[in-house]
Give the backbone structure.
Amino acid sequence: MLDELNAAKSQAEKDFSAVSSAEEMEKLRVKYLGKKGILREWTQRMGSLSVEERRAAGKGINELKQLVETRLTEGQAALKSRRVEERADVTVPGSRPPLGHFHPVTLMTDRLIAIFRGLGFEVAHGPEVEVERYNFDALNFPPDHPSRDGYDTFYIRDQVLLRSHTSPVQARVMENRKPPLRIVIPGRVYRPDTPDASHSPIFHQLEGLAVDVGIGFRDLKFVLSTAMQELYGADTRTRFRPSFFPFTEPSAEVDVSCMICRGRGCPACGQSGWIELLGAGMVHPNVFRFAGYDPEKYTGFAFGMGIDRIAMQWYGIHDIRLLLENDLRILRQF
Ligand code: 2U9
């Protein structure tokens, strides 16, 4: 009887090693484990055996049962993965999951932040809903300054507005920290401009501030000319033209040599070879006084740039509205 059992086991081995389809596997499952299966048969024969034989047969039958169940599980798993393989033609190139894209303004913001981090600046952030105190008073805007009226600023209610520049963040930081300071502030700002190709009521700025003892205009020139060379290439030149801002004295408009024609003159720079890119200046002593800094002891410089405009030049985008309309046909190019 035991050799019959061993014969059944080796037959089972042969049966399972020859299986090539799920249907055949199912047939074997029924053959061995089915209601009228071989195992059931063996179990029923147990009744007619002696105690001695029954113990040996019981062990043999369990081994046969173990063998069949193991082969069944392994066989089904192998068939399943083969089916997968058969179904999936692995030679067909995989479908690339739709990856997102960073927005051009985000790409340029990160690029600029990396440059200024390299120059020792840290990033600061602040509220977009501001109060007049920080958006204007702290920045030496006289009470009757035109940008305080509703034409130039989105007022939510008296004294409360949507910030028209990121400068209030610097004012807040100066109130809570002592020099030395080197901070850059990226962020969204709001001005009630009629949307057109170069104006949008929502746009993005990156401003910077450095305050310490003995900071001079030369440091401003060094930091900005180095930053522009980092951004546009080592042969990039910068030019400072006198200008005026309430929060800086002296103030300057800063031009960089045209990144398209490298300064030789082209339609992009109006044949001038220069592109006006940002504004800057030495922090006005009244701004220091408002923040509680002694203007006799501390000096500092500040600068500001429109990130959207720089990104548009960089990516050849000719209408700022394309940056806000979230048209994926545009955005997925970046
Ligand atoms: C403090 C003191 C001084 C920030 C500055 C500019 C010059 C500037 C414009 C560039 C393009 C705004 O987006 S834009 O239109 N900004 O020209 N911004 S200096 O000066 C500060 C800021 C904060 C406490």
Notes: The beta strands are 122-123, 129-131, 155-157, 160-162, 181-190, 202-212, 238-245, 248-257, 274-283, 299-306.
